[in-house]
Amino acid sequence: MTARFEAQRAALADVVAIPVTPFAEDGSVDQDTHRALLRRLLDGGVRIVTPNGNTGEFYALTPQERQLVTELTVDEVGERVAILVGVGHDVPTAVQSALHARELGAHMVMVHQPVHPYVSQDGWVDYHRAIAEAVPDLGVVPYIRNAQLLGARLAELADDCPNVIGVKYAVPDAARFAAFARDAGLERFVWVAGLAEPYAPSYFSAGATGFTSGLVNVAPSVSLNMIEALRSGDYPGAMKVWEQIRRFEELRAANGSANNVTIVKEALASLGLCRREVRPPSRPLPEGERAEVAAIAAGWSV
């Protein structure tokens, strides 16, 4: 089974780009701009994309828009890069989205953290099992933000569903990640640092081989420079990139990540690549705070 998903596993060990979803002046998904931004990522060297990720405002899109984003992505990138489609919400909705992704020819699905005030360990396994069993021919990547989840439960899920091949781990605790990965099986899964470039060096030192990125929408070369340094074991080089992106990521993380997507779209808007609009509960950056973001974006080789 591992050999069956070898290509998908290899694809995850990289910069996993989370594209933004650009909106037109009337508030609809801007399809032409979406395609242009995807082409820019591919031209910049990106080899795996996640339509309907959090940087794509997954929870602010309608079911029809999520389908559209998947369709646009598959149509635009074709077989040139791996496609990891974000799915979630209730089980029937997540399963339907996963089946839609499979029908279009996507390679994998990422299962968003269950949005529910009461998540039991057994229930977490049941939720992911239902989705993974519906698409046994697709690689499945749980998105873990739950610090209480035990690594043994992930191993249990993979015992039942061998198509669970990777993990997007997004608990901001490198020591917990190191323990969780080893309890689940360090070599059994591809570990993706789900908190992007700021956490990538510490998570790579503990076993991650890929990291997610929203920043890559703005400056693909910056993200690729970091992973190349990490792959070669050049941690001083990786930390030089970390210093380069520090302020941008601090702005995204401020106030409980309130402006996480807002900052990315503001940077893209400053470069004339898309509109800055985001949907509630996010909000565009106030005019007085835009200059700093524009200066950062202008300072990168984009």
TrEMBL record:
**What is the main EC category here?**
lyase
InterPro entries from the xrefs?
Aldolase_TIM, DapA-like
Family assignment from sequence similarity: Belongs to the DapA family.
Q: Which CDD domains has this protein been placed in?
A: DHDPS-like
Task: Name the UniProt key words of this record, in alphabetical order.
Answer: Lyase
UniProt EC number: 4.1.3.3, 4.2.1.41, 4.3.3.7
| Name of the protein in question | Dihydrodipicolinate synthase family protein
Molecular function terms in GO for this entry? 4-hydroxy-tetrahydrodipicolinate synthase activity; 5-dehydro-4-deoxyglucarate dehydratase activity; N-acetylneuraminate lyase activity
Segments passing through the bilayer = none
Q: Name one Pfam family in it.
A: DHDPS
